[in-house]
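Cross-posted from the bioinformatics board.
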Amino acid sequence: MADLGRLADALRQHGGEVREAGPDDVVDGVPATAVARPASAEGVAAVLREATAQGMATVARGAGTALDWGAPPERADLILDTTGLDRLVEHGAGDLVVVAEAGLPVSSLLETVRGAAQELVVDLPPGRLVGGSTVGGLLSTGASGPRRLQRGGVRDLVLGATVVLADGTRASSGGKVVKNVAGYDLAKLLTGAYGTLGIVVRAAFRLHPVRPDRAFVVGSGPLADVAARARDVVASQLAPAAVEIDRPAGSDVAEVAVLLEGTGDAVGQRAGAVAGLVGGRVQDGPPGWWAELPGVSVGGSSRVEPVETGVSTSLTSGGSTGGVPRVEPVETRGVTLAKATATLTGVAALLTAARDAEQRYDVGIALRGTAAGVLHAAVTGTPEATALAVGHLRAAAPSPREGTVTVLRASREVRTAIDAWGPVGGLDLMRAIKRQLDPGRNLAPGRFVGGI
Amino acid sequence: MGVSESGLSGVVAELVGALGVERVITDRQRRRTYECDGLAAYRVIPGVVVLARDADDIAAAVRACARHGVPFVARGSGTGLSGGALPHAEGVLVVMSQMRAIREADVANQRAVVEPGVINLHLTAATSPDGYYFAPDPSSQSVCSIGGNVAENSGGAHCLKYGFTTNHVTGVDLVTPGGELVEIGGKAPDPPGYDLLGALVGSEGTLGIVTAATVRLTRLPQEVRTLLAAFRTMDDAGAATSAIIAAGVVPAAIEMMDALAIEAAEAAVHCGYPAGAGAVLVVELDGPAADVAGEFDDVVRLCEAAGAFEVRVAADDDERALIWKGRKSAFAAVGRISPDYIVQDGVIPRTALPLVLRQIAELGESAGVRVANVFHAGDGNLHPLVLFDGAVEGAVDRAEAVAGGILDLCLEHGGSITGEHGVGADKAKHMPRMFTADDLDTMQAVRCAFDPDGISNPGKVFPTPRLCGERPGRHQGAHPLTESGVAEVF
């Protein structure tokens, strides 16, 4: 049994609190025993050292917007609530760098750096952003959005991180300069690790200047056409900031939306050229589904506020005050969320496979994401049918090197019916890393690939 | 794990049997060819050299090493500047330069699959007819290998905008230090699981040997424009750089040279930089033509406002090449004005540039040592060239003291000890100044996951090896196992 008194003692000199878990302290169906909310990195280290000494399994939680992603943990004795670590440590505007604690909401970070006409180009889904998604959650889930086409995912933007290991060791890697090759890039290793290697307490990111002007080009057509046109834009010299594809469930047509960023006339000229390539129209704002995960209602176009142009707003601008399209997550139970990757040319096969799977297995598959080959699929159907559909999507790629499908959020029944992760290259190395950094499996056991 | 003569001779016997005598070099004179990489201050004749043809050769060599507890080191073109490919006297040097096939240039998917010995610039040459190139471009791109780029996470002048090698690798085939061939990632983005590629790229050969890499191909920009701006002082050039960044422009490159570096470049390649310049900036913009035209005008205006007394715009590819020639030849050119020099590779937050440059100048003056500065101004990656004459007594020590002092300045300002050359053998001793013992122990724990016997490029990156299996913690003095003769420090 957990000794909460000793956990609280561990925190005493560092601030923060420990309490018994309540009915809401559940990780994807797994109830916790206790919740610790430290207020500093030292506090995180002290609590983890004590929890691990007691043999507890610890799961980190930020705002909880993606707490049901990844497999449910085998146990969640302690929830380590990171929201007490909410400082923006440093914004080096002249250096285009920001350093923040793990519990800081991404929307707050965005708001601060927007004051210097800068942004962290992660394009977190508006649903998560509005839900208070934190810097730690952003990293742990390895988020990326539309503009990864040019800027990469969060793993490409993280410059350094400080992590607390299961035994309480605090370790930093990288730094706060853009160019740095000293030592191993552990920040990348922790990105997308779902808190199974350590608990990130602080991270430094590269920022980009907000481009003064933007334009969207939106077109639609049959699946194969849309994929081909999206590819043409990606392969053009028009330097699109994003090329997104959206295929609603049950549809034979898809929409393509291209974002161009730059300065006034130049953006207008490029938008015109893109419109020619995709056969679409130029518009100021994004389509209502922009950057959102599929399977989340965007409330209809009438409720989408227009995104203003100019440096004062950006698509990722935070909270309810910016120019973010208003979205309200709908009931997501029964919807399985998967991440599907493909090569540029493989995107077409993925779209077609989604349509085939629907007809074969009586499921709905909404598919949305970048033409660069990182899409999300929302699958609706019985567990058996969902499992078959995921298998069908996996088969769309000739090999795992050319595309993978991993299930992020699903019911127990779906998880029982299918291997949620699919084939993973280098699994033995991953297990070895886990053994080195968390030999007692005290961090989110069972949550990651291969039962890690 | 201990290393013994019998270990190495056992490996040699196995390798000769498996690969044939012509691929296994034991002759001392021939082994000497490989005694150093681009950092000639460190020289070690390798115990034996293997000329690898394919992944099977590499796996065979590594397996033999693993069986006998013998260290191995991979080497590409040997252009590294930190001794990352420095051989081991009792170990195997695996030479990759015969693995030069571009297996696939999959332009439709913007990917190429290459063998590690492929020369960086050759990939660009092979794909530019189709409108693509390989973006990471270290200054040695005409000779360095892509395997070496992956090992060192190489940068170059254009990584401010386009990122480093780590942003351009989507898959590798790896021979682990246990001799197993593992495929990680591929042409599709975001392979599931831990970001092993993130850990591998830039790990300087300490986690295994990459036998093939899948890399991004980048679309050639529609337009490239380059200018050279001459300033009276470094401060003015620094102010121009800040103004450009503050205006929200992300140039493809912003490079700065000081008067001494300009003097050296002129002596070597007669690049004709403006006379009387205390500093020059090379600024390159690329992208869609309409955007580049507008932003280029802004950059010219900002340079003039910061005090540029001459701005030259390259009218064609030849003029562009001449502007770059001065910059790219600067390191080698320093040999014209000084018998010896140390190239430093520190990084600082860009806004600290004016202050740190002044401090470097003071450091040099007080030690009586000349320092030439050539650097990537956009990302704060300094390459001070510390000049000395090895024939003068005490000159080497003074130069090394200044070079070390420059690194201290970088760390004081929140920077790094290396921006692109790597830690290698050269800077391993500096790692504890940048990282705590816990930081280094954690990195070494990752190393132990890949290389439990510590045989993959030992002696690089980390100041002291950690024996896998031991608990991390403070160690003072010699390691007990080393002292008792049970283990040897590689």
